[in-house]
Design goal:
The complex is a heterodimer of chains A (about 400) and B (about 325).
Chain A (H helix, E strand, L loop, with lengths): L1 H30 L1 H4 L1 H26 L7 H17 L5 H27 L8 H20 L2 H4 L3 H26 L3 H20 L6 E2 L16 H5 L3 E4 L2 E5 H19 L1 H11 L1 H6 L4 H27 L1 E2 L7 H11 L11 H20 L4 H19 L2 H16 L1
Antiparallel strand pairs in A: 1-4, 2-3
Chain B lengths: L1 H23 L8 E7 L5 H16 L4 E7 L4 H14 L3 E5 L7 H9 L4 E4 L10 E5 L1 H15 L8 E7 L5 H14 L5 E8 L4 H14 L5 E4 L2 H13 L7 E6 L5 H6 L5 E4 L4 H12 L9 E5 L3 E3 L3 H5 L2
Parallel strand pairs in B: 1-2, 1-3, 3-4, 4-5, 5-11, 6-7, 6-8, 8-9, 9-10
Antiparallel strand pairs in B: 10-12
Classes of the chains: A mainly alpha (about 400), B alpha/beta (about 325).
Amino acid sequence: MAANSHWRLLNQRLGPFLGLIVIFVIGIILNGDTFLNIYNQLNVLGRVSIIALPAVGMTLVILTAGIDLSVGSMVSLASVVCAMLLMERDWTRATSLALPIYFVFIFIAGYYVVRKATRRLDAKKSWSVITGIAGGLIVAVTMVYWTYPQVSTGFGTLSVLIIVPVLGLFLGALNGIIIAKGKIQPFIVTLGMMSSAVGLAKFIAGKGGQIHPIYFQSVGMTAGGKVAPESFDVLSSKISLFGVKLFPVAGLFFLCSVIIIYFVLTRLKFGRYVYAIGGNEETARLSGINVDRVKTIVYAIAGGLSALAGVLYCSAYTQGKADAGITWELDAIAAVVIGGTSLMGGKGTVVGTMVGVLILGYLGNILNLQEVSSEVQDILKGVIIVGAVLLQEGIFARWMRAFLKKIKDEE
Amino acid sequence: MFRKIMILNLVFIIMMSIIVGLSCQKSTQSGRYVIGFSQVTVKEPWRVVFNEKLKAKAEEYKDKVDLIVLDADDKTENQVEHVKTFIAKRVDAILISPKEASGCSKVIKEATEAGIPVIVLDRDITYKGYAVFIGADNRVIGQAAGEYAVKLLGGPGNASGKIYEICGALASTPAQERRQGFHDIVDRESGIEILGGLDGDWKLDQGKAIAQDALQVHKDIDIIYAHNDPMAYGAYQAARELGLEKQIKFLGIDGLPHEGCMWVKNGILTATFLYPTPGEKGLEIAIEILNGKRTITPGEKITLETATITSENVNEFINE
């Protein structure tokens, strides 16, 4: 039986990588140079990077044996808010939603940081609260001073890169708090959020969910003189060295998120808590882990990363719209599952998810290069998801062993 | 033992992939043009007809042209992916019917800069450096419908009556333009009252639901104008439930052979206004450009003509 578990482990760890290699080899065989050339490779990586961010967040959620159906809607909402912040020169619905949440968040963050810092100096812990509030207020006011004038001039790249993910963090945390405190199944809570976030996106966009185009000066797409800052276009460009395009900027976000989450999961106490909750929530609770807090943070991260994906979407497709991230939650779950993370929680890695995302990306790319119609692509995607899980559960290995044993017996 | 299985596994997988690879490999002959087409979705009947007509046209040129038709499943990301794939494959020309005005602009610029002529079909985009845009003008179609409605109600100057309007998805430009064009003409007539203007999202069932509610309140409607044929047909169904179908005239837009035209032929709709598919024209122009018979003037626009389809001329459009 030890051999069996050995096999399982091997399959779970290596299965996704093996799958990636196979897909890559198939790609080379089918399309040769067209597939391998740097243009195509960067194109796959660039596209995949945006969808990868919700998948990375989803990995954490699924590790706690939860699920987050709202990530796609968060992408939509974030894209609408981001596009409006960049293009509008007035106080709009987008600003009324995003800015208050942003300021409250900054205040809370400032409060915690200052309080933590002053706690050591304070033996009685009486004035650390006051200094915390004061510190938080100072930080928040500073940020208001920096951000508020941008309402009338259009927001800068750095501002949207902070404000929009904070909105995602907030809505994600809302998911987490309701799940943890209300003791409701994550499926239901995030299903509700999925509907509400899309509705909110449509409401904010106005006119029943119109599209908000983003224009840049450099690409000659001006409309009424309003343009987004050129630096925003950089988010969807490629880093080049000596005139050779090397890596998409969106890919950096993807890579950084994977590295950070990998570090969190393997090196920090928080990561062990995540696995512990996924393994057995009751045991985790009894052993003193603050389960509610861990869950809230996990869903907040998923929301934040999805909103970040929404910002990158805006840059890549020069628009924000309420159906931007439609069905992305399913792609994210698929990538996580292909990457070897168990939906039962407690088992899996974020590196697996990265590989899962790449497998799906290359699959789509190869099928497009082969001119396979979208319905066949959907069928194949489904087969690969189920096949990958079968492989990881060691069923093929069991068949193989039975087959080899038979041969041996016949000998 | 385990290593053996592992190796066996790998060998098997690699062999399978080679077999699959060899059996799928396609050879492109030289001296032929490869033209890629990205269609946003085939869930709408209009786009199905669009693709059919385009493919039929490509069949005429089959000794010269290989047409690749990809369906984006209603997603901008997929369309961008399609165009990037076309660039990677170095096709000779790209046809695209984009989902919306802004989403594909960047990648179309990329293709244009890579020296591939891009022909934008049906919906104009924000980037104006493409080779040609071909599409019908929804506002003109709306005006044609307005003129016809005025004629039905007594002619310009002395027309009078009530028109109920059922709109397509109001967030979309086609619906806004079809509404605008119709109002351009009808608002001039002081005797005509336009009611409604609710969003039926292009769908038959929603058109029916809106008409059901409206006909409870207004039993004296003369004309129901819907932004597409299925909604007009839905309105007809609602009127028939109330026994009002004889006294109301129904106007639709699109004029697809198996939808609007059939309904006109069967006397359900009084008239429908052709929203022509731009595929055939697009392919012809692409071939002209590739043959050097046409010089590219970036941002050029070609508007396709509409036609009023009534019971008198409907057979021409069905036999087409």
